[in-house]
Each structure stands twice: as C-alpha cells, then as structure tokens.
Write a structure and sequence with these properties.
Pept_M24A_MAP1; alpha+beta; four-stranded antiparallel sheet; metalloaminopeptidase activity; metal-binding; 430 residues
C-alpha cells in the first residue's frame, strides 16, 4: 500500500479516537430525553407505541464496548431481572436434574392470551419478542431516560395498579392454595382493570406473574403445587397499563409463622432493601446501591445474588440503568429527577450461586438454601425518592415492617409529600 494513504488513514483514525475520548469524558452528564404524550383529565392517556429517537447519538456509541472484570460484570440476558448465564451446565443432566432443594416443577395450566380491544398490549404479547428498547445495549450504561411530568403520571397509575394486584394476591396465600390459582387471580384482576400482565409471553414466559417458593430465587413459574405451612413465597407482579409498566414484589409466609432462620432472612432482606431505597436522591451514584445491600447482609451471615439485577422501567419493561445488588464499580451514572427504576435485592441464607432449571426460567440457590426478595418501582424526585408501588392503608402489614430497626411501617419515599403521607398511614396501622 502507498505510504500517503496509510498515513492519511492513521491520521483519521487518531482524530476519531481523540473525539471519542473527549465525548466519553463528557457523557456522564448525558441523559436521554423521553418522548412525551398528552394525558387525559384522569391522568391516563392511550399513547401509541414509540421508541426514543436515538439516531443522532447512536453513531457515537456503536463501537464502544465497556470492559469489565469478571468479578464485577453486570448481568445481562433475557428475563425480568437480567439473568446471567447459568452457573450449572444443564447439558450434563438428562432425566434426573439435580434439584438443590425440596421444590419441584408441577403441572402448568395452558398459557392465556389477552385479546381485548380496550387493553393496550406490549409489543411482545403475541410473539414473545420485545422490540422497544432492543437497541439499548448499544448505548452507554449511564444513558438513562428522564420521564416527563405526563409520563410520571402514567407510571403512577401503573404502579398503583401493580400494588393493588400484589395486595390481592398476598391475601390469597394460605396452605393448600396452588401458585396457579394465585396466577389466575392475578391475571383476571389485571385484565379486569384494563391492563396487561407484563410477564405473560415476555421472552416466552408462560404465566402472568412469578411465584418463587423457598429456594427459588426468582422467576418461579406458577403451577399446581399446593403451598405448605412454613413456605416462604415471593410474588412478583408487573402490569402494563396504557403503555407503561409498574413492577413490584413482596414476600409472604404461608401460615403466617416462619421458623427463626426464615424470620431472620426476611427481616434482613427487607431492611437492606429499605436502606437502599432511602439512599436514592438526585446526584448520587447508582453503583452505591449494591454496596449498601451487601454491607448490610454480609455481617449477618447472608449473601446477595449477583446473577440478577434491578432495572430501569417505563414504556420498556427492562431498560437502563442496571441496579446491581452487590458492591461494584460499574459506571451506571448518577441519579437525576425523573429517572424510574427498580431495586429488588435477592438475599440468600447460604450460597448466592444460581442453579437454573431446564425450563430456562426458574432460578434456585445451588445449595437449596432459601432466598427472599422485595421490589419497588422508584421515581427519583427533586427532593429524594418516591415509591410508585408503595403500600396504602388497605395493604397487609407484615412482621418485618413492624419490627424493622431501619424503617417501621410502610415506606412511601423521602420527599416531603411522601413522608407526610407515610406518617398519616403508619399512625393508623402501627
């Protein structure tokens, strides 16, 4: 090759690298403005599906690939909480899968399909393949959507409905009830409210909610197994109402009387979760959430799962930022008023390593130890944080909310309005 073209190409390449270096130094303050829609008088509007217009920024990020150490690598992949690859090679097992605890898969009822002209469907409802946000992995991790005032009102509505459905499901928990019966209740309640159950057919998930019992960490599929006295159960509810997702989960004790180890696990999981939620306010780094959680549970002899994470949420079920629940140095940027995301730590009695079942969804602890999880959809406000899926005066008061040394009662947020509302409710229930 002649020398002149070679030198010219090298010069162009060097200039491009300098431009990218400068841009990356500036990018931490960058946020993606969201699309907006007009709200109806009741605060809910029927908006057409839209994606962010990223055409002007994508070209700068196409070749950028963040390098992470294996130790701190963020989990990515399909699923509600971004599962990483299984820690167990399922190809080594045939008919006799090495289940780690007492829970076994039961029979599943047929998958439902929501067909209703007045219910807005997510883009994956029919074929299981989400399209909105499909290019988000090409963007830098701190590029986070900022919701408009209209969008925040839409998310308040979806969060409120998710909480109402979760409370309904929780009241159905008792010995002899199957998780499939709970799923039926959840499905019918969501559809009756004019919404779509977000998990249904998301990457092919077969049910309308997740029910995770004992050693099941997350993504448990409802089936015909009857709940037993002393089981601990996480019910994870997400609704898609008028184009926006609201996501929350809570633990329940079957029979209401946990053994001492389960009681300690549930209390610690709730307390570390609330401490993480209280940390949220504009200007703070997302990476510190994980340090708060891990530093709280580790001295108690418990562990925090690394294979799954919280996530941004809105029109897209799974968006940026990723919320890691362990100490990390990932560059997920700083919180800005208008960000919406979930914090959902999964805390284990013993090992946090994951065993994925052959159904490609159910994730259990590798040693059969029990796991617990709580989740809110959170909104960063100018004053702090608001839980869009917060409990209300009609919600069930659990023992961990009464006995917590971190926060007693229902946590609604840290803004002045949220604290005032929490005071009014907690004065009545405690």
């Amino acid at each position: 090759m002649p020398k002149l073209p070679l030198l010219f190409l090298l010069l162009v390449s060097s200039l491009q690298m300098l431009q990218m270096s400068w841009f990356l130094r500036q990018a931490e303050a960058f946020v993606v403005p969201s699309s907006s829609g007009s709200a109806s008088p009741c605060g809910i509007s029927l908006l057409a599906e839209r994606t962010f217009d990223r055409a002007s920024s994508l070209a700068l990020f196409m070749r950028y690939k963040k390098k992470s150490s294996i130790k701190n690598k963020a989990a990515t992949g399909k699923g509600f909480a971004s599962p990483a690859a299984s820690t167990v090679n399922k190809s080594h097992y045939t008919d006799k899968f090495p289940y780690s605890g007492s829970i076994r898969p039961g029979a599943q009822s047929p998958r439902r399909v929501v067909v209703h002209e007045k219910i807005k469907l997510p883009d994956y409802a029919m074929n299981g393949r989400p399209k909105l946000g499909s290019s988000s992995q090409l963007l830098l991790p701190w590029m986070i959507e900022v919701k408009t005032a209209e969008e925040i009102e839409m998310m308040r509505a979806s969060g409120k409905l998710a909480r109402q459905v979760l409370d309904l499901a929780g009241r159905a928990v008792e010995p002899g009830v199957t998780t499939d019966q709970i799923d039926t209740l959840v499905h019918e309640a969501i559809v009756a409210a004019g919404a779509y159950p977000s998990p249904l057919n998301y990457h092919g998930f077969p049910k309308s909610c997740c029910t995770s019992v004992n050693e099941v960490i997350c993504h448990g599929i409802p089936d015909d197994r009857a709940l037993e006295e002393g089981d601990i159960l996480n019910i994870d509810i997400t609704v898609y109402l008028d184009g926006y997702h609201g996501d929350c989960s809570e633990m329940f004790v079957v029979g209401g009387d946990p053994d001492p180890k389960a009681r300690a696990l549930l209390q610690a999981t709730y307390d570390c979760w609330i401490k993480a939620c209280q940390y949220v306010q504009p200007g703070r780094e997302y990476k510190e959430i994980g340090a708060i959680i891990e530093d709280y549970v580790t001295p108690l002899g418990l562990s925090t799962v690394r294979d799954f994470c919280g996530h941004g949420i809105g029109k897209v079920f799974q968006a940026k930022p990723d919320i890691l629940h362990y100490r990390n140095n990932e560059p997920y940027g700083r919180m800005v008023a208008g960000h919406t995301f979930t914090i959902e730590p999964m805390i284990c009695e013993e090992s946090p390593k994951v065993l994925n079942w052959p159904d490609d969804w159910t994730a259990t602890t590798v040693d059969g130890g029990r796991a617990a999880q709580f989740e809110h959809t959170l909104l960063v406000t100018p004053e702090g944080v608001e839980a869009l899926t917060a409990k209300n005066e009609n919600s069930l008061l659990q023992f961990w909310e009464k006995e917590s040394t971190v926060y007693k009662g229902f946590f609604i947020g840290t803004s002045e309005a949220a604290k005032k509302k929490a005071c009014e409710i907690n004065t009545k229930i405690l």
